[in-house]
Amino acid sequence: MRIAVCQNKGGSGKTAMVVNLAAALAEAGERVDVADVDPQGNASRRLGARPDADQATISEAIKCDALGAARDAYVECGWGGVYSERIRVLPARFELENRISEAGTVGAVKRLKRAMAGCDDGRTTLLDCPPSLGHLTQLAMVAADAVLIVVEPEFDGIEGAVRVLAFVRDHAEDLNNPRLHVAGVVPSRVRAGLGVHDFQLEGLATCFPRLVWAPHIRERAVIKAAADSVAPLRSLRTLPAREMADDFAQLAARITRLKETVA
User: Fold this and answer.
1) How far apart are alpha carbons 234 and 221 in whole angstroms?
2) CATH class belonging to 2-262
3) CB 147 within 8 A of CB 180
4) CA dihedral sign of residues 147, 12, 232, 214
5) Is there a contact between 6 and 167 (Cβ–Cβ < 8 Å)?
6) What is the pTM assigned to this prediction?
7) Where are the chain's structural domains?
8) Please, are residues 211 and 185 in contact by the beta-carbon 8 Å criterion?
9) Do residues 18 and 243 touch, judged by C-beta distance below 8 A?
10) Would the pLDDT of 146 be above 70?
């Protein structure tokens, strides 16, 4: 199953969601792919899979426009242990920006789906999208089975999430992926005791009926520490790190159940 992790606003914690869900799925015994569809390449770096200058990346796989073209671009997660055994990364460099200029080419929006064809059978694939609804995100949506929206509980974040929901609803047919749907909305970077967050969280169920997932991901320094250290949360061996890893494990279990219903 492929899940495009999206938001139409930057700074929502989207890449942190992808990286930590991948870790939680691997800890649960799942085989996971992370496709980095963001030219910033932050998911690649945080997973210890930043590509060398001569290494093929997702950009070259898309440009090739051939079935299975991504096969040789996957690399192991650099964390070691079960993570390297179970997580593969389709990495990105900033050159991925060049693919945006192909948006007007007939059929270009299908190129990532073609590149990944046959490469991730039986695996859970998380696609880390840029904070936009442009060509790169559309490439991911065409390739995906479902969309997971990450939302910071503030006005701009909720507006961005609403735009993603509306885009999927209104344009799945246009993307030649009519079964594409929003599987869930996950509140992220939630700050305890902040009035505006409490207020916005109360209204999420109204904005996104039956779509809000729990637990909410709190704003905690350990998430940034793990990202900067290029390491999984559980490796930090602190109580806050274990608590956050347990929260992601609950979300990962939700993804596993979703995968079983689609199979």
Assistant:
1) 14
2) alpha beta
3) yes
4) negative
5) no
6) 0.96
7) 2-262
8) yes
9) no
10) yes
